Model the fold of this input.
Amino acid sequence: MMGRHRREHHTKADDTRHTAAPPSNRASTDERGVAEPAGEPLRALVAGLPGAAVHIRGDAVWFNSFAEALIGYETSELAHVDTWFATVFPRDEPRARQIYEGSRRAHFSQPDVLTITRKDGTSRLVEFSGYTGIGEEVWFMRDLTETRHAEETLHNREQRLQVTVDVAGLGTWEWEVNTGHMVGDETARHLFGLGDKPDQATYEAYLDRVHSDDRPRLEDAIGAAIETRSSFDVEFRVRRDEARYRWLHVRGTVAEDGDSPGLRVIGAIQDIDDHKHLNERLIHAARMESLGQLAGGIAHDFNNLLVVIQGHLEFVAAESSLTDGATKRLDSIAGAVARGSDMVSSLMQLGRSTAKTAGTVDINAWFEAGMDTLRQLVGENIAVEYQLDSTAPFVRFDEAHLAAVALNLATNARDAMPRGGVLRITTRNVPSHDFPVRDADQPAVEVGVTDTGVGMDAATRDRIFEPFFTTKAPGVGTGLGLASVYEAILDAGGEISVTSTPGSGSTFTIHLLAVEPDAEATENEALPIERPVRDDLIMVAEDDAEVLELAADILRSAGYRVLEALGSQEALEYVAAGEKPDLLLTDVVMPDLSGPRLAARLVDQLPDLPVLYMSGYASEGSAGVKIDDDDLIRKPFSHRHLLERVAQRLPRNQR
Done:
């Protein structure tokens, strides 16, 4: 009775649930509690499957609980085959019916993916595969939505990663340690110069491209990583072709293969050659800047000594009682002062403390005008050849500095060819994107200075522009020539580089930005210089006592009255005490108060006071204020030069 009662109960529930189904679809219940339609063994099998499945018999559709959960409908809602297709496959109905009809004819269907629409309106990607018996079909359903989403996410991530790798120029590689098998992608092979030889790109082939000085370091780093199961990070040079080595950066790690006891080394590699050389240039520029500041400070103090020596030398030379021997010695001292002045000029250039009077220069015309001078400088056993591009543009350069650049490079070439040779000077119109400049759209000119001399090794090339570095014998060179060339080119907004190998000569290549030529300047009409009169009072402000005394002596020898102020404070005290000088002659750089600041203080009290500055620094010198050339006399100065400039600045000689 209990069994019968239980059977009747489930039959009633089944009738309630499948109201749209024919009576033959009524189910019984087996020992597992699974609904089993009476006389329907295939439907009973579908009901017991562990996944979503659909049974179609004629026009009737029935699906198990897993399918109900997948599509959100109950069987009673989609009991007819037309309702099933129209409701579940609104997007893919024609294709779904095509698959259905095909499976009926072939008795089975290959897995295919369709989009279904759930009762709640959401869509799912479902894989269908079917089996057809006599008059009835079973479709198996597998939800692929999350799988496909995961696959798309992974694909998108891989694409983004590949774009990142491509943009960064990264190459990837993998080496199986036990077998020696090496696999590198196209970028990695290209970086090692093995791009067209994938079959030959073995681990040894990669290592053979590494610079002999760097290979032990690279192998040691990889060996240590294998030993400790850790990562490694190495920079090294690779010979990609016969021309030169390039710097590469590799990072890698060691992974244990889960399928075998072997180890794999996996890494990424990148070309850092441009970055490496840029970093070296920045370091070199910083070192040059520090040395230049040091040199400029030394030159300033040395300049004051030259002022004193030259000034007193002129006083002594003016005496009529000198013997011929004394005159000869004085001439020798004067020559030494001149050489010292040239050295100071070079030191000032390193510190960028020399005056900048840059104008536009026709580079071809300038070299043509200096042909004879260069030929005389290098000597008869060296042929000087010119290859000047007629389209070479104007450049902006201080002509005095340009002359120093040319003479220094020619002298360097001459010394590199003791047995004679050829010095070749070339100009060429080039686009500025060929080298790093401030304005990439501006045209440029390339100047080449090539010799056929002894050449240089890499160690010498790397230091050739350093201040005080020289390959000449002690006492022969100062090591300032090429250093001042480097600074002059840098000051002009250009760059200079050198290529050389021992025994094959050297080429110095200069790049300068092109400019439009200036309109011709109108020469100032010479002003008449009146002789000093009795009432002219000059106040000299200078923190170096010897320079102060010398300047005062020169002025007094010409008839001027002089107030000597040892520093800015004494100058202020003179005016506070009621002194009214006709001219202030002041040093630019002083410890307590700079010359321009002193002048500003005094002009507040004496509005008509003219000022003449004296300094070995540039007009934009360390006082931090730009000084016009008309208001500046540069040290060391001669008696005549000082007196002329003082006379010009006096009020009665001003227009």
Remarks:
- The first strand starts at residue 27 and ends at 29.
- The chain has five domains: 2-145, 169-271, 277-350, 359-515, 537-653.
- The domain at 2-145 is CATH 3.30.450.20 (Beta-Lactamase).
